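[User] I have long wanted to understand how a fold can be written as tokens. Those tokens are not coordinates but codes from a learned vocabulary of shapes. Could you go through the record with me and say what the backbone is doing? Thank you; the sequence and its tokens follow:
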Amino acid sequence: VHGILTRSLGISIAMQTEIESTRQNFVLIANPISGKGKATAIAENAYQQLTANGRKGRLELTTQSGDANRFAREAVENGLHRIIVCGGDGTIHEVVNAIAQKPDVVLGLLPCGKGNDLAGALKIPKNPADAIDVLLNGTPRQIDLGKIGEHYFDTIVTCGYDAEVSRRVTEGGVPFSGTAAYVYAAITMLFRYKSPVVRLEGDFGAYEGNILLTATGITSSYGGGMKILPDAVMDDGLLDVCIIKPIPRLTVLRMLVKLFWGGHTSHPAVEIHRTKSLTIHTQPPILLCADGERICYTPATIEIIERGLSVLLPADKG
């Protein structure tokens, strides 16, 4: 009997070992059109290096909007705890909305998009080889998220002029990529934009009147590095809010340059606030974009979700 039990136990241990050895622990989701079509090659290289270093997982390529969200949800349902995204802020946005407020699920990034603002805020290297090193040796950390209704976001919500610029870039027709795409869209949109009347309510009180824009977020930058919220901290439990009142077109152009180092904040038409939530009312309703994606129309309430996302950072940035 003892021999039978021993052999049975040995078989059970062997079977368990085999199951563990084949169990996947990551999914790599790539948007093939990101990075002017370079995302597939970058993702395949990353996948090969991850598996060569003992990780087990699969590579999924998106073909349409919503695929990244679906792949991420399926991965979580199957018990995977590492979700890697090769793409831009739009693809990341989809994945974040599948893994938000799941602290045991960690997001890894291979930046390969027009803006890469979340990756920039997290100090993820743009060089693919260095970014892959972060996937292999990085340190998990929890950061804040924002939320509008049922939608989560990880960078900045735009309302007004910058929302229209984001819409123009996202919908295409801009003959540039990266930061140049946002600058081009900002200049061309300037001649057709009309400032809306808004009412903004937050911990700072209320503002009512016309605006050029209102940007509310977790990170400091949008548009590939324009520091609209230069002092934003990703884990302080607060939303940073920038309100810019209507200004002449030439002043807008000058301010666009200053955005790259946050120099706009000293202008008398600019207000910076911090708040746990922000309610926006307008008449008529206007578009809100988050992470560069169309989300909803006003009225809307934006709120902070403290430490709502686990991300993988370079080891020396944890």
